[in-house]
Amino acid sequence: MADEAPTLAARAAALPPGGARPALGRPGGRPAREANRSGVGALAAAADAAGATPLLQVNAIDQYYGGSHILRRVSFEAVVGEVTVVLGRNGVGKTTLLKSLMGVVPVRSGSVRFAGADVTRATPYERVRLGIGYVPQGREIFGRLTVQENLQMGLAYKPGRTPLPPELFELFPVLKAMLHRRGGDLSGGQQQQLAIARALAAAPSLLVLDEPTEGIQPSIIKDIGRVIRMLAGQGLSIDGKPRRMAIVLVEQYYDFAAELADRYLVMERGEIVQRGRGADMEADSVRRMMSI
């Protein structure tokens, strides 16, 4: 019907490959933040039904810090229902790659496509509205805000009375018991669970995580791994409708990565030097590459 909100893919297609960024709402229609509520689910469902159709396509991106060439023609894809793991030692460009996916740092050349649309010049908040969730390295929660307030930040672009999905507390029960505790008072592992839940609050169709095991105790690492696998394989159930996700995971902990990976990429000096199926990581000597 003509009065219905446009699908997320349709609004994403309105983003130009360059030049000015348009508003994500439709002229004369509902505000963009309200229209997004129907779009996220529509995109996730369409991508899930498409099977192996890539939700994210990164095509030959280059990125520089000053005169330093950080990313060198990096290309890969992420598919709904799969975990794509990016491995490599410190300083090879993994975090910069994720920041480029989110629009936190600009790319010099190449393109980033999400749901078939070019989002290379989209701002970080536009990408979040389109359905990309980001868990940064170091968690970056708000230490003076309560757990509940931190989670509500994940809904910042939605109407003020949008409730927190109760499914978040099924994934991370400890957060429900600590809703009124300040984020800065949580343990490192609890803060990591909070950061992931915050990214999931808006029900993204692509979840990007930067080293979620860093500084975390083994028992919580297992819990986080279980959640990541469930999100890819079964999906996050919102309003009773499970929606599988595409996952991009940067990780240095080999065993954790090998357990989760459907596909893997190994980076060195800003380039992808090896890629393959997660089941082949041991045969492909990825562990040795990580230890050299």
Q: What does the model show?
A:
With 292 residues, the protein is α/β, with parallel strands linked by helices. The protein has a single domain, classed as Rossmann fold, CATH 3.40.50.300. Helices cover 34% and strands 24% of the residues. The protein has 11 helices and 12 strands. The chain has helices spanning 8-13, 32-49, 94-102, 124-130, 147-153, 167-171, 173-177, 188-200, 218-233, 254-260, 286-291, and strands at residues 54-65, 68-79, 83-87, 109-114, 117-118, 132-135, 206-210, 236-238, 241-243, 246-250, 263-268, 271-277. The strands form 3 sheets. A 6-stranded mixed sheet has the order 6-7-10-3-11-12, with helices on both faces. The chain has a 4-stranded antiparallel sheet with strand order 2-1-4-5. A two-stranded antiparallel ribbon has the order 8-9. The longest helix has 18 residues, at 32-49. The chain is globular and about 45 Å long. The model is unreliable at 1-14 and 16-41 (pLDDT under 50).
List the helices and strands and how they pair.
Elements: H1 8-13, H2 32-49, E1 54-65, E2 68-79, E3 83-87, H3 94-102, E4 109-114, E5 117-118, H4 124-130, E6 132-135, H5 147-153, H6 167-171, H7 173-177, H8 188-200, E7 206-210, H9 218-233, E8 236-238, E9 241-243, E10 246-250, H10 254-260, E11 263-268, E12 271-277, H11 286-291
Parallel strand pairs: 3-10, 3-11, 6-7, 7-10
Antiparallel strand pairs: 1-2, 1-4, 4-5, 8-9, 11-12
Helix pairs in contact: 5-8
